[in-house]
Write a structure and sequence with these properties.
Distance between the termini of chain B: 41 Å
Strand content of chain B: over 45%
Helix content of chain A: under 10%
Oligomer: heterodimer
Strand content of chain A: over 45%
Distance between the termini of chain A: 36 Å
Radius of gyration of chain A: 14 Å
Number of strands of chain A: 13
Helix content of chain B: under 10%
Largest interface: A-B, 27 and 19 residues
Order of helices and strands of chain B: EEEEEEEEEEEE
Radius of gyration of chain B: 14 Å
Structural class of chain B: mainly beta
Number of helices of chain A: 0
Largest sheet of chain B: 6 strands, mixed
Structural class of chain A: mainly beta
Number of strands of chain B: 12
């Protein structure tokens, strides 16, 4: 398996531009997570999906951020318009949540997208 | 809401020494999972060790072991015989049972010195 695939690996853009980050989860996984990593705040959970449905988006910082999961093999995180304070590493992760009680035993992370907003 | 606190932003130790990274958490749950993840300079996130709160025995994985103190809500990671390849950011993380999301601390940057 190729693992969780994120693109692009690096993104440099100017303030005000739209940015779209992409993620392909591991085939067969039913949960997908978007995290943001900064020096000040560490790893923050932005949003997660289960079976393509958004379950918890309480971590999304502002209306400028939106995420979609149109099918089980693809998700996007969009920032519009982007601001310098959005500069961070954005990680996508997927997992297989099973059982009763539900158990998320292990997150598999992508290699992240380093976003720089100038 | 659950919180995870790592009080040591950065640490340095000599190669072959033993080092302990601290983690405390706050929850009203009785059943949950705790994790330590390693992030080397490559940015890859690697699961180091996992502990179920209902198990009293501390988890171990080769040179990595934890000291899980449930009453104190403490979950420290001990790295024995540290190696240069252990240089990384280490994140402590928490997950409620019957939940899907994992909450991370801010991390501890560990430097292993030759």
């Amino acid at each position: 398996d190729a693992g969780v695939i994120q693109s692009p690996r690096h993104e440099v853009t100017e303030m005000g531009q739209e940015v779209t980050l992409r993620c392909k989860p591991i085939s067969g996984h039913n949960s997908l997570f978007w995290y943001r990593q900064t020096m000040m705040r560490g790893l923050e959970l932005l949003i997660y999906f289960n079976n393509n449905v958004p379950i918890d988006d309480s971590g999304m910082p502002e209306d400028r951020f939106s995420a979609k999961m149109p099918n089980a093999s693809f998700s996007t995180l969009k920032i519009q318009p982007s601001e310098p304070r959005d500069s961070a590493v954005y990680f996508c992760a997927s997992s297989l949540v099973t059982g009763a009680p539900r158990t998320n035993e292990k997150l598999f992370f992508g290699s992240g997208t380093q976003l720089s907003v100038l | 809401a659950q919180t995870v606190t790592q009080s040591q932003p950065e640490m340095s130790v000599q190669e072959a020494e033993t080092v302990t990274l601290s983690c405390t958490y706050d929850t009203s749950e009785s059943n949950y999972y705790l994790f330590w993840y390693k992030q080397p300079p490559s940015r890859q996130m690697i699961l180091v060790i996992r502990q179920e709160a209902y198990k009293q025995q501390n988890a171990t994985e080769n040179r990595f072991s934890v000291n899980f103190q449930k009453a104190a809500k403490s979950f420290s990671l001990k790295i024995s015989d540290s190696q240069l390849g252990d240089t990384a950011m280490y994140f402590c993380a928490f997950m409620k049972l019957r939940d899907d999301k994992i909450i991370f601390g801010k991390g501890t940057r560990l430097h292993i010195l030759p």
